[in-house]
Every structure is written in structure tokens, then in C-alpha cells.
Amino acid sequence: MNTEILGIAIQIILLVVLSYPLGKYIAKVYKGEKCWSDFMTPIENFIYKICGIDPKEEMGWKKFLKTLLILNAFWFLWGMVLLVIQHLLPLNPDGNGPQTPDQAFNTCISFMVNCNLQHYSGESGLTYFTQLFVIMLFQFITAATGMAAMAGIMKSISLKTTRTIGNFWYFLVRSCTRILLPLSLIVGFILIVQGTPMGFDGKMTIPTLEGGEQTVSQGPTAAIVPIKQLGTNGGGYFGVNSSHPLENPTYLTNMVECWSILIIPMAMVLAFGFYLKRKKLAYSIYGVMLFAFLVGVGINTYQEMNGNPRIDDMGIAQENGAMEGKEIRIGSGGTALWSIVTTVTSNGSVNGMHDSTMPLSGMMEMLNMQINTWFGGVGVGWMNYYTFIIIAVFISGLMVGRTPEFLGKKVEAREMKIATIVALLHPFGILVGTALSSYLYAHNPEFVESEGGWLNNPGFHGLSEMLYEYTSCAANNGSGFEGLGDNTWFWNYTCGLVLILSRFIPIVGQVAIAGLLAEKKFIPESAGTLKTDTVTFGVMTFAVIFIIAALSFFPVHALSTIAEHFSL
Which of 27, 75, 511, 568 has the fewest CB atoms within 10 Å of its CB? Predict the structure, then answer.
């Protein structure tokens, strides 16, 4: 047990220590300053040339967003076509069939919005071709999209008064070539050395301990796993995701993958400080996020390592903690840490089954996604926090009787309206979706039965399963309480709708706020200026986030996770 706690502590310390130099490097990349990765310049220039892109063109926030949305729409159509005809394409040694239109729609939307929600099993639902040219491709594009959006916001904030926020293509390409690709190569090399397969052979047949035979999928696993973690994507190459011994073979790979998930979101917060030369403000934001993250780690580690009281009552020893749904090589502590790391980010990978975690652990997993600001997905996590900064600045200004300002720009009604819509959209999508599915389950059982029944665990846990599904969609996470039968017409389309709204409306709103503020006259700081880089303002922002984001969900948690906890 002490060894498990030591492993958790080492991973957290490594994350905090290494996020600083990486954040400094990311700021240099987006500012176009000289750095070690300049050898990629000829490759980047080649990409710009063949695509007809002028990387020096400055874009207004509207053109920036238009370019972002058109790019994502194109790749969505690309993915839809390939998934429904994948059985006709090469690199399919196992003979996997096509996806149905509703499943392809859900898959494409999910991976296009950096969610990677999977209503299929990786071994049988995709071919090697679509794993590489849909899934892996999308994982680079969607991660880079979020990072490019944040880079545009940072540039707009850094200038006193401007009508442009940078070039979307420039930020997108650099995110891929100078950040995501180099880190993916490093992580991929470690995985290959540790035993993760990298090839194009079909299923291998192996003897079992019982004397029978079993077929095991392989393929280009080591090419896809690094970017799924680093880009906070999370889709499982295999159906059981990172609990699979070929996707996550050893405790070392478990540590490396866990580190990969959180390192860029943490570094992006610090990059903001280096880019704007406001390190104190970045430290304040980083501190709030880190505090919330550590609270979640503490709760889940305690819950999982102390076991299930029902099993204690049966007189069965639980020296290793609550091991249902967990891998022996990882342990309850490693699973607890992973569950928090993935849910504070938009990474839906799992190294144990969240459906089997203790009720309060499940609550923390969902609350992380429902709040959706503690580091979050690459780029977009900081952007969600930015929304709440705007709200906190406005409220604080009203409390002290001063015009709300953030970094020299007045926050007025238009920005507040956008920020409020973005903040309230998240609970709206989750709670409306959960209410609809609960109503249908209770009042239209014929429809539910026609889709296979949905719930394997009715009652408190059944409500948690449906709540988790929409929470995961709205947070662009992708993990699930897999007691839910979700590969149906209803879940594919309703989840797809929540995915679209929860990804693009916030990005549009956040970039719009940044663009509108950038156009305003810069106001130099004075004695009356509200300081946003203090501990006091950090606490204020935390309170605003907790009140608006967290408290919206406690009534439904009282009927699901909390009720289940007290039923043990």
C-alpha cells in the first residue's frame, strides 16, 4: 500500500516539475521565438505551400473561428465516409465490417470534438486503416485545434488594442509539429520498449492456461496510444482501453501514460504566464487547479484503497483495496489516480472500470467533468477557466463598486452575456439529457426494451450510469459507466448532439470574448484596478466555479452517487 502511495506521489511531483519547462517552451513556440525545434521550419513551410496558406496573415476573431469550424466540418465528412466503407479499404487483416450510419455519426462527432466516446469495441469496431487515418488523425487535429484556439486568445490578450488574434493555421501546424509530435515519439518509443505492439499483423492465436486457444488483436497500437493520451483524447485502441495488457503493459507504462495525459494541460496554464509575461497570474490559476486536482486524488485514493464495506461485512480481507474492475499490475491506488487525471482533463481513457469504483469515487469523477475547468483538455481547459475569470471579474467589480476590468480591458454586458451562456450550457446539456433518458426509461419502457434495455443496474447506480454518459459527452471526455448499453439509436444521436454543442459553442464564445476585449481601448493599471493575480481573487474564482458549476449537480448526485454511498 505504501508503495502505491509512493507511486502516486512521484507521478504528481514529476508533473508539477516538468510542466514548468514545457510551459516555457510552448510559449516560445506560439510567439515564434527561437527554440530547439526550429529544424521543423522547412516541413511547416512545405505544409503551408501545398495547402496554399499564408502563415503570416493576421485573422480577426470571426475569420479565426470560421476557419476552425470549416476545418472540423471537412474532417467530419472524411471520417463518416471512411467508417461506413472501412470493410472495403486496405489494412483490415481481421475482416472487420463497416459501422452503421448512426454509429459512424457518433464516432466521428465524438473524435472530432476531442471526446473519443466509443459506442464500439476497438478490436472489432475499426480496421487498422480507420484507426490510423480517422482516429489517430483526428486525435492530432482536435488536440491542435484546442491549443490553437488558446494560442489565439493569448495573443489577443497580450496586445493592448488589436482587431486580429493571430493565424489559426500557424498555431495549428506548430501545435502538431513542435509539441504533439515530438512528445508522441518519445512516449511511443517507451511503450514499444515495454511491449506495446507496433505492426500490421492480424490477430494472434495463443494457448490459454486452461489448455484452450484465444485470439488476441494487435496492430499499430504504439502509434496511436501516445497521441490519445498527450492530446487528452482517450479513445481506447482496444475495447478495455488502458487496462489492456498490450495497450498498457507495465507499471512504468502506466506512469508514463498517466503523466502524458496531464502534462500539456498543466504546461498550457504556465505558458499563458510566460506568453503574457504575467507569471504571477498563471501561478494563481495553476494553484487553484492543482488544489482541486489534489483534493480529488485524495478522496478517490482513500475510497479505492480502503475497499468496499459490503465485502468487509462478509469477513473477506481487502488488503489491496476495492479491486473489482481493476488490474492487479496497476492496483487500486494507480487506478484511483488515473480516474482523477483523466476526468480533470478531457481524456476518456481508463485503466480500470469506472463503473466499478466506489460511489463517492464515481461522484468525484463526474464532478471533475461537470466543473470542467481543472486543467481540462489541451487548450480548452484553460479557456473554460477563462470564462469563469470573466464572470468572477464582473461579480467582484460589482461588489466593490468599480467597473469590471481584466488585464486592462473593460468587461461589459456583451462579454458577460456570452460568458453566462457558455457557463450555463454545460449543466443544461447534462441535466436535460439525463432527465430525458430517465423519463423514457420510466414512462416508455417499450422504446427502451426495443433498444436492448439500456441499464444493467437499475436504481441509484442506473441513474449514475445515464448521468455519467451525458456528463462525459458534455465535458468531451469519453469515459463511461459501462453498465449502460449505449450503442443504440437514442444514445448515439442524443450524445452526438450534446457533443457538438458542448465543444463548439464554448470555443466560439470564448474566442469571441477574447476578440471583443482585444478591440477595446487599453486602460493602464491604477490604484483602483482589481488585482487578478492574488490569492484573494483565486479564491473568488474558485467560489464562482463551485457555485455555478458544481452546485448545479448536487441534487442529481443526491439521487444517484450519494444515495448509493449511503446504501452500502
Answer: 568
Report the candidate in 337, 343, 501 with the shortest Cα–Cα distance to residue 429. Answer: 501
CA distance 98 to 120: 12
Across-strand partners of 326? Answer: 352
Task: Kindly state the cell numbers that stand for 45.
Answer: 513551410
Beta bridge partners of 205: 215
What is the number of alpha carbons within 13 Å of residue 162 lying toward its C-beta? 18
pLDDT tens-place string over residues 476-497: 998 888 888 888 999 989 998 9
Radius of gyration of the chain (CA): 23
Euclidean distance between CA atoms 499 and 461, whole angstroms? 23
> How far apart are alpha carbons 493 and 421 in whole angstroms?
23
The C-alpha torsion from 23 through 27 and 30 to 31, rounded to 10°, is: -170
Spatial separation of the C-alpha atoms in residues 83 and 103, rounded to whole Å = 9
DSSP 352: B
Q: Which residues, 6+ apart, have CB-to-CB distance to 337 below 8 Å?
A: 8, 11, 258, 297, 300, 301
Separation of alpha carbons 129 and 109, rounded Å: 18
pLDDT at 88 over 60: yes
Q: What CA–CA distance (Å, rounded) separates 220 from 226?
A: 11
- Tell me, rounded to whole angstroms, the distance of Cα 19 from its chain centroid: 17
Q: How many CB atoms lie within 10 A of CB 90?
A: 9
CA distance 410 to 65: 23
C-alpha–C-alpha distance, residues 452 and 454, integer Å: 6
Residue 210's pLDDT band, with cuts at 50, 70 and 90, is confident
Task: Copy the grid coordinates of residue 536.
Answer: 484573494
CA–CA distance, 255 with 117 (Å, rounded to integer): 23
- Cα–Cα distances in Å, from 455 out to 256, 338, 449, 539, 564? 35, 25, 10, 40, 16
Within 10 Å of residue 109's Cβ, how many Cβ atoms? 24
Within 10 angstroms of residue 135's Cβ, the number of other Cβ atoms is: 23
Binning pLDDT at 50, 70 and 90, where does residue 432 land? very high
Residue 121: half-sphere exposure toward Cβ, Cα within 13 Å: 9
Is 0.90 topped by the overall pTM?
yes
Query: Which runs of consecutive H residues, i.e. helices, occur in 85-234?
Result: 101-112, 122-125, 128-130, 137-158, 168-174, 181-194, 221-230
